[in-house]
Amino acid sequence: MTRPLRIVHGPVNVGNQPYVLAQHERALGADSTLVVNYGTWTDYRTDRSHGDYGVRTPRTVLRRLLFGLRAPFSYDVLHFYFGRSYLSWDDFGGPNWLWFRDLRLAKRLGRRVFMTLQGCDVRISRRSAELFDVTPCHAGNCSAVPTCRSVIDDQREELVRTILPLADGVFALNPELVRYAPSARFLPYASVDVDSFDVVPPTPDDRIRIVHAPSDEGIKGTPLITAAVERLRARHPIEYDLVTGIPHAEALERYKRADLVIDQTLAGWYGGLAVEAMAMGKPVAAYIRDDDLGVVPAAMRAELPIVRIAPATIEQDLEAAIAQRDQWAEWGSGSREFVLRWHHPAKLARQLLRVYENPGTPLELG
Asked: In what order do the strands lie in the sheet with 260-262?
């Protein structure tokens, strides 16, 4: 009897993508687990955590070190996230001699190594600002821009140049990221256990409940969104819920009360929040950068249900959506169908298991 493929996801749980994938890979018969170096305020679930973010004690350091050294011997597949490996301790400071030693050891042992890129792990700030009029990477948007330009961009370029070529496969959850990591394949979010989400359509009552839940206000364009919504409140009965700094489970309860969810207006693609809201049957608004969509399947592009907004016209864009409020329930239903087709974690886990076995296997999305 052939033993199950042993898979580990980590070392971070950004956006819940690795946890949900590990769950569905297990359901398909793999021995898949999520092990993280640290937990954060989002309180996403994990199978095993070595401690809390930034807490540096002899015990946590030893646990991280031992797991990082043992993982290449213990697993057939090591699936890393956010430009890190188990020996990349970003919460303890910048890169040092220890970073990626486990990844390199895994390669020497003949293990299969994969990396999923999720955003600012590989988005090169200076290049994004050169390429696009709309991006978080212009000065005055994201507070990290000066640090990115002086330090972190060089680290990202080093990741692309020396680490990603070691991987058997690289995936990008945002199509823009393929510009900086050309070896990456676009992969839709698998971060939402869609079947477990109740459908809660927009309500038809007088109040318009708008939810915005930024993981980073600079990247998501929160000041622009909030200012536009506040101006609209002078003309429409809007209740605005800005969800920040609370555990994931609590945030989900607040999303259920939304009639419209605004994801972002700078980043050019929608995020995990949008997938969660669409799974609930909510219409979602976001800025979508058309120039990046060449790596997205044509059918997915054609079916994209996102309400388009842009920084220069966000107030007008939202008001046009409000004028069509009688269609929001229908838009939300279409959003749910879109997520079931393109973001269902069972479908994507099945595709990844095929790629783990044979890295050259094409992804059959949708």
From this structure: 238-242, 208-212, 260-262, 284-286, 307-308
The pTM score is: 0.95
Q: Is the peptide bond before 359 cis (omega within 30 degrees of 0)?
A: no
* pLDDT on residue 329: 96
Q: What pLDDT digit, counting tens, does each position of 270-318 carry?
A: 999 999 999 999 999 999 999 999 999 999 999 999 999 999 999 999 9
| Sheet of 185-186, strands arranged across | 48-49, 31-36, 6-10, 77-81, 112-117, 169-172, 185-186
Say how far apart CA 116 and CA 97 lie, in whole Å: 22
As a residue count, the chain comes to 366
- Give the number of other CB atoms < 10 A from CB of residue 310: 17
| Domains of the chain, first to last | 6-191+345-357 (3.40.50), 194-342 (3.40.50.2000)
Burial class (CB in 10 A: 0-12, 13-18, 19+), 35: buried
CA separation for the pair 46, 187 (Å, rounded): 22
